Amino acid sequence: MDLIQRASKIAFNPSTYVNIESSRVESPILFYIIRIENISESRLRQLESWEELEDPNNASVDRVNKHKQGNNTKNNRVIREVDMSDDPLPHNNGSEAQIYRLLLKDCFDNYSYGYEFNDKLQFLRSRNSNGGPLPIVLGSRIIVYQGALILNGVIMLESAKCKFLGTDGVDKGFLDSLNSNIISKYANALRHELHNG
């Protein structure tokens, strides 16, 4: 039996670890990534980014000016194209400063959170091959190895203690349900979180 098959037979019940300050994963566990959240950025800033994707013509060019103008907002437009071919300076999109929280689901429908810990997970720093707004396709698989740190029921993800596997393509319906209308789903979830505190 290979590692993926073994890991898919192990359940992770986070409630077992909630009152335990520190523990370790006892054997490899296969998870599906259900949600990705950049916790180093405010929810308001995230919402503005998603709204820009949702409707680029209604995006705030200057958040402070838009707020000050209130209902008298000018019809600001987004610059759609900039020629960067002459620019010799490398650009950093800030991905190295970002910290991600992942909502994970094991093969037994147990949900838990995984946080980046001590180092950056490179699969969250690449661009989605299908051109989506997230760095990976939701529903992608990850194996968390034996020895990964668990703090109060939360898995702390380090490069040495996990491996990104991508999607297996077997359950297309599952992948479609997670990734269809993703911009609206994320924007609506953030609006709800901001409104309900």
UniProtKB/TrEMBL annotation:
Q: Domain RecQ mediated genome instability protein 1 OB-fold spans what residues?
A: 23-167
InterPro entries per the record? RMI1_N_C_sf, RMI1_OB
Q: Which Pfam families match?
A: RMI1_N_C
Entry superkingdom = Eukaryota
Q: What is this protein called?
A: Piso0_004022 protein
What is the species listed in this Swiss-Prot or TrEMBL entry?
A: Pichia sorbitophila (strain ATCC MYA-4447 / BCRC 22081 / CBS 7064 / NBRC 10061 / NRRL Y-12695) (Hybrid yeast)
- Gene name? Piso0_004022
